[in-house]
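Re-running Acetate kinase to confirm reproducibility after the cluster update. Everything else is unchanged from the original entry.
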Amino acid sequence: MYILIINAGSSSLKYQLFDMPAIEPLCTGLIERIGTDQSFIRHTVLNRPDNPVIERHEPIATHAQGFAQLVALLSDAEVGVIKHPDEIRAIGHRVVHGGENFTRATQITPAVKEKIRSYFPLAPLHTINYVCIEIAEQTFPKAKQIAVFDTAFHQSLPEYAFRYAIPEALYRQEGIRVYGFHGTSHKYVSEKAASWLGNPNAKLISIHLGNGCSITAVQNGKSLDTSMGFSPLAGLVMGTRSGDIDPAVIFYLIEHGYTPEQVNTLLNKQSGMAGFTGFSDMRDVRKLREEGDPTAELATELYAYRVKKYIGSYTAVLNGLDALIFTAGVGENDSDVRARICQHLDYLGIHLDFDKNAAFLPGIREINSTESPVKILVIPTNEELEIAQQSYTLLQAE
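Result of re-run:
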């Protein structure tokens, strides 16, 4: 059963094609820095002995253009893995916001699309998920479209963790509460960590560091607390988002001439690492640091400090800690950021091995010292495989 997975981020488009129930993809692809002059596409075929790779650096202005590229590559005469779009049985989509309505993989219908649209104001950087659904419906008219929601994993939060201290009516009537995001990634890596540790009841802190960043406390395979809240704006410092900020700052800005729309744009698209350094990508920020830029150094320290505070907080929530998990683009690849975060956490039993941390090895790896009571794990996330497995389970239940 061919299932194509689409994982659209604010400036990226990742895809994998699976022949389920096999967990190894037939091909994978990544389109990054969409909307910039540095955009590129990498397509890798995995079901052939030579594993051909196509990499092109060319302007890709929109996700729609990126989607057209991936469709062409899937059926390309030389590196394609399908002959016709109708061979694909289902398209699994990562959808950021499912509110309290969606707690599991769901087949997309007009009613489901309408509900997804209603959550646009809560995740303004991720309306692109919906755009990709509509493109997929037109491109693969015979395939079933399935949504897997980032918020679903966090529906296990206890009420005292997901409620805000505001009037009851705002939750009951307006749905204002903590929803949490990156749930597909946190679910995948926490399950991998529990298996690695041989402990399904493990106390885990999962740290997803990419352009968007979040941290989640997990025990017994369930999310107990998470840093993103009503929207993906809260919590850690991110590529373009401010993370936690005193709400009074918003009132102050509006009183001094900013419109609500301008404040929204400021905090979601012009803050975070971009607000400090002009660059949202930590690879660019790291280059600035290595060149001695003091602002980039300060921005990175602030970035790591915010993560460190949450680690302390969530260790208290869990009443102990078995393992710390680093995942996603920055978490998996930036050894300097990991080192900054783990520094001075020995009181929690977190001891980093700097040589292990600096060595890049594929797959799951431990980077803690041998005497560290807490494991420090780098686990490559695979949201696409998680989405594929949930989509396949849904189709099998029909």
